[in-house]
Amino acid sequence: MDKEVLEFLKKMDEKIDENFNNMNKDIKKLEKKVNALFEYTAEFREEVNVKLSELKDVKEVTKENCYDINLLKRKVENANLPNA
């Protein structure tokens, strides 16, 4: 009877080890996927930050030039008016 119990425990231990090894493999696969996803999102964040910076530059240039643009527009309009 003791021998049967020991054999049963040994089989259970082997199954536990096998399941543990399979879980470790699955965990490693998940870690690789998470790392790849993190790298992808890091690249995306960098692209977004660059584009936001470019938009801020365009906004600043537009803000600086809006008065010049308006002045030129008025000059063109005044040049097109008939002389009184």
Quaternary organisation: single chain
Coarse structural class: mainly alpha
Separation, N- and C-terminal Cα atoms: 123 Å
Beta strand % = under 5%
Roughly how much helix do the residues carry, as a percent range? Answer: over 70%
Largest sheet: none
Radius of gyration: 36 Å
Mean pLDDT, nearest integer? Answer: 91
Walkthrough of the structure:
This protein is mainly alpha-helical and 84 residues long. The chain is built from 1 helix and no strands. The model has no long low-confidence stretch (mean pLDDT 91).
Summarize the structure.
The mean pLDDT is 91. Helix content is 94%, strand content 0%.
Strand and helix map with partners:
Layout: H1 2-80
Keywords: Coiled coil
Coiled coil: 13-65
Keywords:
rod-shaped; mainly alpha; 84 residues
